[in-house]
Amino acid sequence: MTLQRMDNVGIVVDDLEAAIAFFVELGMELEGEAQIEGTWADRTVGLDGVRCDIAMMRTPDGHGRLELAKYHAPAAIGARPHNPPHNTLGMHRVMFAVDDIEDVIARLRTHGAELVGELAQYGDSYRLCYVRGPEGIIIALAEQLS
């Protein structure tokens, strides 16, 4: 059996609408929204009484997706235990390739985003930065230099 593809990256958030707006501003498209609950969901994530709203975000090329999830039950937890359950807020980072990194940073700032460090250049290859968005989500941006 071989790996077919990476289907999506899941991010648990408290404010689903703010997270959707942030990723739409980044350039992702809202593919769809749904409410997830039932025995199958409980069994899949190893939690009892799961009820959450999800939004599937898609990159413009259609190859990358983020699943944003807002847990209503059980409530999301902010602590990061050694083996965090599926409803733990946040993750390390997701990196996106962009055409104009300064424009993207400016647009994301209208959604409360801020640079984690600073915009830096890696040799003659890339301009890079980390941006902290809603829920403390960190995304990396990379602009390839020609």
Automatic annotation (TrEMBL):
Residue ranges of domain VOC in the record: 5-144
Choose any GO biological process term that the UniProt entry carries and state it: L-methylmalonyl-CoA metabolic process
SUPFAM superfamilies assigned: Glyoxalase/Bleomycin resistance protein/Dihydroxybiphenyl dioxygenase (SSF54593)
GO molecular function terms listed in the Swiss-Prot or TrEMBL record: dioxygenase activity; metal ion binding; methylmalonyl-CoA epimerase activity
Keywords annotated in UniProt: Dioxygenase, Metal-binding, Oxidoreductase
**PANTHER family hit by this protein:** BLR5325 PROTEIN, METHYLMALONYL-COA EPIMERASE
Q: What is this protein called?
A: Catechol 2,3-dioxygenase
